[in-house]
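Side project, low priority. Logging it here so it doesn't get lost.
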Amino acid sequence: INEMKKAHQAGGRAVYTWQKQPQDKVANLIGIGLVTIGMIQLVPAFYRLSTGKGKME
């Protein structure tokens, strides 16, 4: 626990607590990747909705 406490107190206000642990970088990259994939999928979805393409009949 003391090691984690030192890690969270290091860097002061310049570094957020959710970026200080070694595994936080992986978790942040996974989250950014999921958001990016979702945003990329929205572009064709909005296009199809606006043009009426890809409808199931």
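Brief comment: The chain is about 65% helix and 0% strand.
Revisit when time allows.
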